[in-house]
Design a protein that fits this description.
The protein is α/β, with parallel strands linked by helices. The chain has one domain (about 1-324): Peroxisomal Thiolase, Chain A, domain 1 (3-Layer(aba) Sandwich). About 30% of the residues lie in helices and about 25% in strands. It has a 5-stranded mixed β-sheet with strand order 1-7-6-4-5, with helices on both faces. A hairpin with a 3-residue loop joins strand 12 and strand 13. Helix 3 (about 55-70) packs across helix 4 (about 90-100). The longest helix is centred in the last third of the chain and has 22 residues, at about 215-235. Bound molecules: acetyl coenzyme *A.
Length: about 325
């Protein structure tokens, strides 16, 4: 028998305010047509003034606990992936911990930008498999709108705010790909590409928060090759074929990147969970938001094989395979 982590619940939260491409036409020199053609994005949600990453995270965490039918008191670990913490320190995870009324266990943030949720899953899975935790909340939450230069049309049209969460629970399995569990995670980074996608501020460098800066075409090129490699790595490690995948739940940055990966895997679009059209790129929140949507609308069934993949600033990238 092998100790593994099983996802026993998921939930999400989106701020009420939806901003359409038409709305953005009034702010910068752009068009609905350009944005849809290049990215597939039609709308995104933007947090209200005073609505913080921890508020979004807490709402998603409560939804995930509710779906799992669990009391917050049974959680002994919170791993929160975010690029937009409430404050530079303490971690936003500790605020969520207090918000849930928890005084035991431990909570920490993970920073891997758009790959953050896959990284956080991997971290929480390691805590569970080594016996340091038994029930973990894994959250991706972002108020990415706060990092945007709203005068820069090359970036401000791409991102949105939101949060998603899953509950992971320790489970026994056979240790093979038939287990209903998180089967594997594969993580990578390459800091040589630090400047391809970054924020031009920080506590240590400028003592300001800064704004997102990006070399879009370079990121696009790396995304398709690196994501294809890390997906292949996950399938080989588990003795699985692309045809075994029931659902691709990718990071939602750009529909063209997602289509490229699906094509390489020969997956029909009916097996791809797509939210980028309505959410934009919500960074660490995009995968759990998409997962929660596909689970709650009944698409994902017990025993289905789910492939998640993401790439973000760093560069950081990774994949996770889950048997639901
Ligand atoms: N509206 C209208 N025109 C625009 C806009 C806009 N919002 N943004 C850029 N343009 C213009 C440019 O100024 C340029 O004009 P020019 O030819 O007169 O100089 C023209 O459109 C083409 O610009 P490119 O940057 O070459 O456009 P491209 O086809 O590469 O699309 C995009 C840009 C969508 C950013 C693309 O490169 C991309 O998707 N890259 C991946 C980046 C990404 O997804 N980042 C998200 C974060 S990382 C992650 O999550 C994976």
């Amino acid at each position: 028998m092998a100790k593994r982590s099983r996802i026993v619940g998921c939930g999400s939260y989106l701020p009420a305010n939806a901003v359409s491409n038409k709305d953005l036409e009034a702010r910068v020199d752009t068009s609905d047509e350009w944005i849809v053609q290049r990215t597939g994005i039609r709308s995104r949600h933007v947090a209200a003034e005073g609505e913080l990453t921890s508020d979004l995270a807490l709402a998603a965490a409560r939804a995930a606990l509710n779906h799992a039918g669990m009391d917050a008191a049974s959680i002994d670990c919170i791993v929160l992936a975010t690029t937009t913490p409430d404050n530079t320190f303490p971690s936003t995870a500790t605020k969520v911990q207090a918000g849930l009324g928890l005084t035991r266990g431990f909570a920490l943030d993970v920073q891997a930008v758009c790959a953050g949720f896959v990284y956080a899953l991997s971290v929480a899975d390691s805590f569970i498999r080594t016996g340091q935790a038994t029930r973990a909340l894994v959250i991706g939450a972002e108020t990415f709108s706060r990092l945007l230069d709203w005068n820069d049309r090359t970036t401000c049209v791409l991102f949105g705010d939101g949060a998603g969460a899953v509950v992971l629970e320790a489970a026994e399995g056979k240790g093979d790909a038939s287990d209903r569990a998180l089967l594997s995670t594969h993580l990578h980074s390459d800091g040589r590409y630090y400047d391809l996608l970054y924020v031009d501020g920080g506590a240590s460098s400028t003592m300001t928060t800064g704004h997102v800066r990006m070399h879009g075409q370079e990121i696009f090129r790396h995304a398709v090759t690196k994501l294809s490699e890390v997906v292949e790595e996950a399938l080989v490690a588990n003795g699985l074929e692309p045809s075994d995948i029931d659902w691709l739940v990718p990071h939602q940055a750009n529909q063209r990147i997602i289509d490229g990966i699906a094509r390489k895997l020969k997956l029909p679009s009916s097996k791809v969970v797509l939210t980028v059209d309505r959410h934009g790129n919500t960074s660490a929140a995009s995968i759990p938001l998409a997962l929660a949507e596909a689970v709650h609308d009944g698409r994902v069934k017990r025993g289905d094989l789910i492939l998640m993949e993401a790439i973000g600033g760093g560069l950081t990238w990774g994949s996770a395979l889950v048997r639901w």
